[in-house]
Amino acid sequence: MQAYTEKIREAAKRLLAEKKVDGVIGFRKGTMPFMNEPFMAKTPEQADLLVWDGNCGINLANYLPKRTDKIAIVAKGCDSRNISIQILENQIKREQLHILGAPCKGMTDKRKIQDELDGKEILQAEEAGDKVKVSGRDFEKTFNRSEYLQENCAICIHRNPVISDEMLGEPVQEQQVERYEDIKQIEAMLPEEKRKHFDELIEPCIRCYACRSACPACYCPTCFVDESKPQWVGKTTDPTDTRTFHFLRAFHVAGRCSDCGACERSCPVGIKVREFTKKLEKEVKELYGYEAGMVQDLRPPLDVYRPDDPEPFL
Amino acid sequence: MSEWEPKVITFLCNWCSYGAADLAGVSRFQYPANIRIIRLPCTGRMNPKFILAALRHGADGVWVSGCHPGDCHYIEGNFYARRKFALLKTQLEYTGIIEPGRVHFSWISSAEATIFAEKARKVVEAIKALGPAQHFIKKQAEVA
Amino acid sequence: MSEMFIAKGDFPAIIERLMSRYRVYAPVKNGRHYEFAALKEAGAADLGFKNTRMSPKAIFYPQAERMFEYSLAKDDPEVNIVKETPKDFSPQVVLGIRPCDAKAFRLDDANFCSDKFKDPWWAQRRESTTLIGFACNSPSSTCFCTSVNTGPFDTTGLDAMLVDTGDGYALQVITEKGKNVLGILELKPAPAQVAGKVEELKASAEKSVATAFDPPAIAQQGTLDIFNAPIWDEIHFACLNCGTCTFMCPTCWCFDIQDEVQEGTKGDRLRLWDSCMFSLFTFHGSGHNPRSQKVQRVRQRFMHKLKYYQDKYGTGTACVGCGRCVQACPVNIDIRQVGRLMGSGCSCPA
Question: b/e map of A153-169 (b: 16 or more CB within 10 Å)?
């Protein structure tokens, strides 16, 4: 995927020089191993800072809502699905966008790699093809990237962008995987076990709302978390408040979530918050045959209806 | 000690189920007094936040009732509500916030007073069988 | 300053003795990470850590704390009288705190415990707590303590400090408080060669911390020059306005006060961590928000840490270089880089 770097720079320079766009949203190299920083290049010179590798897991669509300028943006499969939802929900206009489609082979999960290193600090990570070479003060180790992908990437079935103005590479082969194994396991639990499972899952939550902030589907003018008249969710670290927050956050993105994994990636305490959203994704698929952002003009499932919709709740 | 009685927060659409409740009343049909009715302009107004708020504040169960699909005063409000309920109920049960049987939905027109009274009895019975809600009620915050 | 020595094999017994007199907080491994926790058994303490994931500030300043309680019951003779919640201020020991985090408490004192104002709970907890530090022999790549007026062996905020010398811990007693607490342990004085070993470790640790930026250079810049500089446009772009950096930071002290009422019978007044990253933090009752834009909030955080605090107190930055925000930021906004930009006359390098 690093081959995209050159293509992104070339496209960015061209688009900026021709004044077709006001900025190009991509990533620049981070200051830490396995980290890149979302970045907007505004001049052809800045375009040389843009990079692409397996550490671009933040969903760039998050930087689009309410922009008024013309923007080129690098979009993976998931990013592109969120962009199409944002277009449907009037957050940005299609005419404003020049989408550089990036067929994606998944993003690296640095936590999984760190787990293999017995607490040793990673000082450098170099990616070459599917290999990533990690080194520190007194060690060097090479990993196969495909075995250390973010969990959402490992089960991703839409790696190719659904909308784009130009593609950065040939489409990659889509995976045939069972997406909902973990969800089915939870579904099979007794109510008491489910409650325990989720209570333990969110126990470390520090209520920083990074999962919400990183989400490309979160752009309500006032988030329910910030509503104070009435206050729907308490702000303490009490378990009931934390449960309420995670429940409502997930419900808000029901049918709009592309499972990009930005929430889980950005959680500072490593909570698998996707266990909340993925269940709704599964239900939406089963009940309404809808997958977020896959078809351009199809509105999200809670925004439409069919007269003969199923009524499993009766 | 008096027998425990559940509190059931009941959201009723102004144009149908609320009328059914009224008709049940003037017709002297008996239904349990456990239900606390909140009138909505339409089930389409129903927000998941309302249900969570009811449960957080100590309701033992929640019941939402609106017009039969196709009969919405606003043409399509209850069609949207239907999708919301479907996802909401599954998610509530999936996350273990409530046991199955604490949250109920129904379609009851303003003429169906007997059905309303019957459904009210069933809802209250189901919730009674589960016992008092305990796990999602916001009590004094567990903080330092 | 006196030097003592604890062989590694004796360490659990020492912790146990401390626990018999004090509540002891120490780093405890929890999954992938370490956190400070009140010890239930001496064996849980684990000094094999670089630093804890969250800063230890919650020991003095919990994320959610009940300050007052009141009754709302009409027949209660004390209805509507706000009463302070009783708290446990019995003596405690924080064992294994890193020098940077201990220094951070000193900086927080400027807010919670100054000559003019004293936060009663912070001050009492500080008073009843003895900080036994743990010097950093091998700082992380994200550490930059030496750039911000502290260091891996800095004893400024500590009552005593442990240094891992391989086969045991050298223990320096720094304050009277430290002396009183450690007096009960009847420790042996350190063998002669230990002092030299500690000096060696200190020199090598300090050398291994890279220079991040130059606080005096930031202090010298005009406040408005930095405030209005074009650098913020680029710095703020990636920010998600999540509160991660502020929640992890040992020197972020902002809080929100909320009342919670239990169904009309009684109520609590709570103090909760808040964050300048949230727009609600500055949202006025009038509906006006002086920091409604993301760029304003991002600028506020860095200006407060690296500029305003320096200007106001003249004791350096409100940052101790622990590197938690650098590690935890989901979009890799790096305070070291921001500090460099703020100090460099604010011309953006390409």
Answer: bbbbebbbbbbbbebbe
